From TrEMBL:
Membrane-crossing residue ranges in chain numbering: 40-61
Sorted UniProt keywords: Membrane, Transmembrane, Transmembrane helix
InterPro entries per UniProt: Uncharacterised_YqzF
Lineage of origin: Bacteria, Bacillati, Bacillota, Bacilli, Bacillales
Organism: Halobacillus mangrovi
Protein name: DUF2627 domain-containing protein
Amino acid sequence: MRLIALLLLVTPGLIAMYGIKLIRDALFGEFHPIFMHIAVQGLLGVIFVVGGIAFIGGFILHRDRKRNLTKGRFKNN
């Protein structure tokens, strides 16, 4: 189970890391030919970063809710 949880956290982390690389490349003008425009590359990078961080945050919040580690602010009704 721990291996599965580790893979669930590493995969979105890698996607977010690739998103940061895409944003950096778009800012410095490094164009990848699989994207149609450099703005598309930057926007996809932002989506990857936000999505990866949101998935990891949601996973940790769900785990903490299950173990009753959250304060009253994040508890389910």
